[in-house]
Amino acid sequence: MAIARTLDDYKLHTEALQSFQRAADLSPIDDVWPHFRLGNCLYLLGRLNEAKVSYMLGLELASKITNSNRWLELLPSLHFNLGIVLQGEGMLLSASEHYREAAILCPTHYQALKLLGSALLGLGEYRAAKKALEEAVLLNPKYADGHCDLWSVLHALGVAKRVIWKFNRAIDLNPTRHWDTMYKFARLFEYFGLEFRAAEMYLRIMGIQIQPNHWQAQVKRTISLFKAGESADANNLLWLLWEVLKKTNRVQLYDTIAYKKNQGGHLSTLAKIKKGLANGVDVIVMKAFGKTARRECLADALHIRDFQRITGLHRCDVSLLNKESEEPEKSIEKAAIEVILRKLLHFLKLEAFLRAVKAVNQQVFSVLDATSSGRVDLGMFYAFIAPICAGEPRNRKRAAFDALLWRSKNKGQGVIRKVDALIYMRYLRLIYFPSQGYSDQLVVHVEEENKMISFPEFLQIFDDDQWRFYIILNTLMKLETR
Asked: Is 0.85 surpassed by the pTM of this model?
């Protein structure tokens, strides 16, 4: 251990790794330190998966030791570092659990609270993120990263304008680190019509010490001044766009310059285009699908299609749901489902997977875990995502039925309770039909409460006009192929 720590101090991590590994092999069964140090070294070498295994082994050893008070000081760091590794792999749900545990074990651990807030922000749980980040900056008022993320949460909650003066502190504390936050501030000033303040912020971003070649800030500053009436004429903007275009060769600027020349103003033209798209989208879709498609069904199908694209579930074969877990438990932690999603969506890059988990958390987990217990019904989860995975309509319905069958006591007989099917349809409507709002259509007579149904009978319920999911699923299939 001494040799390894000395090598580590001199940044010789590869050499230190051998000694840390040897120390872990030789250490007594009740010594957690070698596994902790080994995990840190592996993390610095970029071997995240091995670092995760080492941290988890350390936590497992600490939990088995009778005199657990010996490791009270180390446990927060173990959970904290494991959370960082998991977040680096895109597992925000799992990471947030370990950040939360670290904050519980060490209430003054402001970094754990900050990273917990950041993870919850990435999951779309804004109010919980706000609470964690407020505690972090309360413990350390000079924590620039905490102020930055707290402002992002407040912006997401729609209250950033009232407290925008306060979170200039994040920039003042560390301007070179948070130039991206300055850019967000400038965009916000622009959104609220404060063009001069926006131009001032863009100028700060273009400062030599921060981002001298930030072409977006350069263009945005000129546009802000132009909108505020400070530019001499529109040719100044055109000249700047051409200069930036020569330096960056950004394709977006070709369109900007063309709009500026042909339509008498880039900003006004973009506004016209957006307005035209908003008014014309219904006409375009109605022409594509004909008179048989109702407006509300199209709206719901388009909403589900957006959810498919964000999550990537339309690229996941529905047959994989059966292979992933033959005997799923009735209730498991959301972090465990995140691991399953990572396997199903293995083709997604890290950023895309983070967006997918956020969408699933906001749209599906919010319904399945309405009490915020942190656990969801895995069978129901599979049943909910089955209709929007790739495959023929009948196969999707079969996968949903099989998922409900897994959680049934009569799975050996191939039948489920009718009431479970009706509950499933009710929550399917709640998750995927935003235009219809919430309506409790679960009406079960006493004599039908324990009635069992087979797959053909389940199909009749699924395709019943009162649920309308059959019509929307057909429309969705057309959207997928066109």
From this structure: no
